[in-house]
Amino acid sequence: MKIEARDLGWRNIVRGVSCEIRPGETFGLIGPNGSGKSTLLKLLAGLMPRAAGEVRLDDVPLGQLTRRQVAQRIAMVEQFADTGEALSVRDAVELGRTPWLSPLSPFGPEDTRIVDEALAAVDMTGMTKRPWSTLSGGERQRIHIARALAQQPRALILDEPTNHLDIHHQLALLGLVAALPVTVVMALHDLNQAMMCDRLGVMSEGRMVACGAPSDVLTPDTLGRIFRVRAMPMTDPEDGSTLFRFLPMEEPR
Ligand SMILES: Nc1ncnc2c1ncn2[C@@H]1O[C@H](COP(=O)(O)OP(=O)(O)OP(=O)(O)O)[C@@H](O)[C@H]1O
Fold it and tell me: Membrane-spanning regions, if any (predicted)?
């Protein structure tokens, strides 16, 4: 699904952002703390009222869709997502099926299959009966992702999805979302992980100041200006890809 932002704004936190996220691409959003990434993601998902500008999903203005229609198209995992304490792991993932259920099509065997698949995709099949409240931070994050997968959206919007995950599950998650046949927009802080995205948007003080292929966007100059670090590119001898080592900016004496 194509997602277009046209002159999108909210208060002075997101200011005049226009961008087009192409069908099926993995689009990374990077930027310093407080630069507006989470707010922009929520605007794209239609979760912020009184926004300026417009979001279009496959050329349809988001405002013309019902909440249910939006939920059939977009699943979002927020940065500090929580869920009802009394739920089991399985209940939490089954919530993802809600936009597809109705009195005429109640939860059935196909929904069970989709939920099983989502739990397997995040390596949580063995924990389905556990109460949500007993999960670790990383396990909760994986269940949020499973809930979003169970929603079977055409776009996944993920706010720092690798937060709390150990390195194995970080790489597994990035591999999983990259392989999904859906559009993915995700905020990331790890700039080496951001290099794996198809394209990146760079946020600074509410504006998208750069957008393009990671190798075009993540230059030592941009990283110095926007993130105030010294970025030293290095080449991975295994596959020739570029990695960065980061050092503090040398302050003028
Ligand atoms: N509801 C709100 N009311 C007032 N200010 C807000 C609100 N939501 C966010 N902000 C402010 O807007 C700015 C951008 O916040 P946002 O969460 O979008 O940034 P971010 O780039 O995702 O940051 P981080 O990397 O720290 O998660 C911050 O200064 C934040 O304090």
Answer: none
